[in-house]
Amino acid sequence: MPATPSNVPEPSRTDPALIRNFCIIAHIDHGKSTLADRMLQLTGIVEERQMRAQYLDRMDIERERGITIKSQAVRLPWKPTEEADAAAAPHILNMIDTPGHVDFTYEVSRSLAACEGCVLLVDAAQGIEAQTLANLYLAMEHDLTIIPVLNKIDLPAAQPEKFAAELAHLIGCEPEDVLKVSAKTGEGVGALLDEVVRQVPAPVGVADAPARAMIFDSVYDAYRGVVTYVKVVDGKLGRRERIRMMSTGATHELLEIGTNAPEMTAADGLGVGEVGYLITGVKDVRQSKVGDTVTQQNKGAEEPLAGYKDPKPMVFSGLYPLDGSDYPELREALHKLQLNDAALSFEPETSAALGFGFRVGFLGLLHLEVIRERLEREFNLDLIATAPNVIYQVRMEDGTEHTVTNPTEFPVGKIAEVEEPMVRATLLAPSEFVGAIMELCQARRGNLQGMDYLSEDRVELRYTLPLAEIVFDFFDALKSKTRGYASLDYEPTGEQVADLVKVDILLQGDKVDAFSAIVHKDKAYSYGVRMATKLRELIPRQQFEVPIQAAVGSRVIARETVRAIRKDVLAKCYGGDISRKRKLLEKQKEGKKRMKVVGRVEVPQEAFIAALSSDESGDSKAKK
Ligand SMILES: Nc1nc2c(ncn2[C@@H]2O[C@H](COP(=O)(O)OP(=O)(O)OP(=O)(O)O)[C@@H](O)[C@H]2O)c(=O)[nH]1
């Protein structure tokens, strides 16, 4: 039953009692975006003919991968079924679609802070998964009203009764209170919107106080500059007003203010409890940071809203153009991506083996994968990425400290201790896989913290693990050991001292910086042997013998040899024609251009790529 637009109150004058701010939280693929689509349709703000699947996911990469990366907010007018009186003002439901992946937890957390309630969506054929739990805990931390909902009840494999009981047990309600919907057919979605109005509390704020609005998202738009999404907590923000960002003190003029309904619609202002966007003409999202508080420049608020955090990169990788002449384009592309991604950081770096490139910091592996794919696809760059690594704190015996984001910077000399970042991981799986998961976590230096049965056949395991052990192939190993049934979520829990060493790989006695890695002492040998063997297979035979060595400091721990070969391209060319000889030599020269020269050894580009992207050393394809 579409609401008549004439009835919808102006965002600057809406009675907060009529506003409901909510978000949908769910495990990946449980149907959040599809449910959001149905809500857009049901509230009548998107006409049937304009509707397309995943309306709110605008980035190409979001559509192709079917995942939500940036959160979005939409203002939906909704008249609850019991008061379908045409004259009554509709309620305003501000729906915030949140990203679902672990890398973006901070964004989820800020989106939650903008809401009073949430819809906890669970696939009725799959049940509770690791991110269902992680998001639920986040929602509880923010004291949100939680509406449990089972989705996909149209599927033949759905088991709504079983999972309603599981969900009810988890959040402490009755199984009858769990709503059942199909985001695909639309069944139950109207009833869900009615429940949002009934259960989610209206926002509270002080209308005549200085304005305080929390930024929960900011995106870069090529035409309009940065679009900042805010929730107004106190006071009111109006068009043309001058505003101040409280974390940096920077001031801007509000060129436009409005709401997404679902396209950007300008308004006079935003009042208490409203969710909408601001445009100030800034060109870089780092000037409009998620979590920051916006207030007026004059007579603004003194105290910012709580909870602001600077995004902190957790995983680093070197990115190098395959073709050295693409370096300026790579720099340009990274600058462009940074406009829209405050968490992306980079600095120039050179590698003897790979040439000029950048050391890039990411929130996690998916973030890395997404950035790499965007660089390759949107900017047409061919890249080599070095194996991802985490940040280490190294304390020397003389008291100096080093922060290491690149294995080649690992200090030499007397090291007192090395600290590495740890995570608290939650793993969920059917109980038959408990043994396999424990074995895997043990092998990755994990420490079991606890274990709970959510129902008789589903188990939650909690581990602390070094982040470095997860960033490589942990997720793939977990999936293959549990036939895809296990799910994983993790959050950082600080640093811990560990016995770590740097392993170098040498070709003909020359260090190849791109292959250096920081690993646990017990794993140094296996890393060394693995890399040496792999390189022996990948490096073509040269005209002299090439020893491949793995070393910790000056101690060699593994060795392989590529035997010599003399390749005389003129061998088959008996006497005669000089132009033919020249042609063969030219061809050989062409081939050599594709080689990287390390010391005196020629290593084909492909060998670098293959060695750096094998499953043991950093294949991070599409972690979902
Ligand atoms: N049969 C059925 N399929 C559904 C339903 N809801 C969603 N799906 C399908 O489930 C898949 C995942 O849905 P999405 O809406 O993309 O899931 P999501 O939770 O937004 O995923 P992320 O954005 O990656 O977090 C899609 O193929 C949908 O078509 C439903 O009610 N019934």
TrEMBL record:
It is a peripheral membrane protein. Keywords: Cell membrane, Elongation factor, GTP-binding, Hydrolase, Membrane, Nucleotide-binding, Protein biosynthesis. SMART domains: EFG_C (SM00838). It comes from Streptomyces hazeniae. Its EC number is 3.6.5.n1. Required for accurate and efficient protein synthesis under certain stress conditions. May act as a fidelity factor of the translation reaction, by catalyzing a one-codon backward translocation of tRNAs on improperly translocated ribosomes. Back-translocation proceeds from a post-translocation (POST) complex to a pre-translocation (PRE) complex, thus giving elongation factor G a second chance to translocate the tRNAs correctly. Binds to ribosomes in a GTP-dependent manner. This is Elongation factor 4. It holds the Pfam family EFG_C. The lineage of its organism: Bacteria, Bacillati, Actinomycetota, Actinomycetes, Kitasatosporales. NCBIfam families: lepA, small_GTP. It catalyses: GTP + H2O = GDP + phosphate + H(+). It is an enzyme of class 3 (hydrolase). Belongs to the TRAFAC class translation factor GTPase superfamily. Classic translation factor GTPase family. LepA subfamily.
